[in-house]
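tokens incoming
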């Protein structure tokens, strides 16, 4: 059963027909877990799984947004409908995204085949909003053939991106200071394609060599060896080569079984998260807010430790 919008029209049906306003409203329902979100996901989930989902991550200052803009243009040039999910830092006041859709890809706003969504990370670790995977599934299900996920760029915590995307593109640039420290080993391990952006700058050769050396020293998750692509996103230089590298990884992952394994891991993470949320809600309802508040005060006063407080609450449940 389709969910219904404020105007009384089925959001799911209208979004699948390409209505961008309906798509934006549908994503808000899902992202904020408003009434109807579960119904929408139930309706759309069987239709998902067809899109190419690419994550673009890396340290701040790497030119991720410009590169995503170029990638979107390249895929649109191939005839694909493209959605961009940009996970931005949260405003400390409103909780909303600090960087809005209005300042991203302004030259592409009139393209009917491109949809841009900014999401606030809301303090969630891993550089991704907790509902990003659900938003990606919706965009996939309503017919976007390519979904590009750009993460906040908060360093090592970016590893959560692997739970959402099929291919991880890790972006760095020369001249960030200690380039090796800018990309921690934990982040490098999740990369499927490495990009040295702003490759027209001095030091690009050294950065590429450092990355290649790190690949030989580190233990990779699979037999895939991430290629290193040098780009200049500002001009579009070597963006076609980057698209080619992404597509090669996609083909390898499909043949090797890595894509299915990654999607199973993502499904497990999603189910376990929902299970935790449901159990916490039920437990909170049974315990009661007043009892939790009293226990919190006792812990704050050092009358009892947190572990003992939880044990007492559970015993009384």
């Amino acid at each position: 059963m389709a969910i219904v919008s404020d105007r009384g029209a089925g959001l799911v049906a209208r979004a699948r027909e390409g209505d961008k306003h309906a798509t934006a409203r549908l994503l808000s329902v899902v992202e904020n877990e408003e009434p109807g979100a579960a119904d929408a996901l139930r309706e759309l989930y069987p239709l998902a799984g067809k899109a190419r989902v690419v994550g673009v991550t890396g340290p701040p200052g790497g030119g991720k947004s410009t590169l995503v803009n170029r990638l979107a243009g390249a895929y649109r040039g191939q005839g694909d409908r493209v959605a961009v999910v940009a996970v931005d830092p949260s405003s400390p006041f409103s909780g909303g995204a600090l960087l809005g859709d209005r300042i991203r890809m302004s030259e592409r706003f009139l393209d009917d085949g491109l949809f841009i969504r900014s999401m606030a990370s809301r303090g969630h670790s891993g550089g991704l909003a907790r509902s990003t995977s659900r938003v990606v599934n919706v965009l996939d299900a309503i017919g976007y053939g390519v979904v590009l996920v750009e993460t906040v760029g908060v360093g090592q915590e970016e590893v959560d991106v692997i739970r959402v995307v099929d291919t991880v593109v890790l972006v760095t640039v020369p001249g960030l200071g200690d380039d090796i420290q800018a990309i921690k080993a934990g982040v490098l391990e999740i990369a499927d394609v490495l990009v040295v952006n702003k490759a027209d700058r001095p030091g690009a050769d050294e950065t590429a060599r450092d990355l290649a050396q790190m690949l030989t020293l580190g233990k990779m998750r699979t037999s895939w060896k991430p290629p290193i692509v040098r780009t200049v996103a500002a001009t579009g230089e070597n963006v076609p080569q980057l698209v080619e590298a992404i597509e090669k990884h996609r083909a390898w992952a499909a043949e090797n079984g890595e894509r299915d394994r990654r999607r199973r891991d993502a499904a497990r993470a999603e189910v376990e998260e929902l299970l935790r949320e449901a159990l916490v809600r039920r437990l909170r309802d049974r315990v009661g807010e007043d009892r939790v508040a009293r226990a919190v005060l006792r812990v704050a006063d050092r009358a009892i430790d947190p572990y003992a407080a939880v044990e007492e609450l559970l015993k009384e449940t």
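note: The radius of gyration is 22 Å.
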